[in-house]
Amino acid sequence: MSQKSFSLAAGVLFLLVALGHLLRIVFRLSLVVQGVSIAMWVSVIALAITSFLAYNGLRLTRKSLSIVWARFGAYAKLGTS
Description:
This protein is mainly α. It has helices at about 5-25, 40-80, and strands at about 30-35, 35.
């Protein structure tokens, strides 16, 4: 798996998890895991962390794409000289 593919997959996965936490906060949904109620502040912290990870994963995907396009552009310029 290339770095671009991994960054894209991780970014999308963390984005979906962040969206789940955001929906939980907005709609004030309760979450119970094995009989223990999870406090809302846990989702606030998880939203901040997963949003940061999603942003960085997607940013790295874009960065690696721009490097590929820059290399392709350099090769294309060499061919037209």
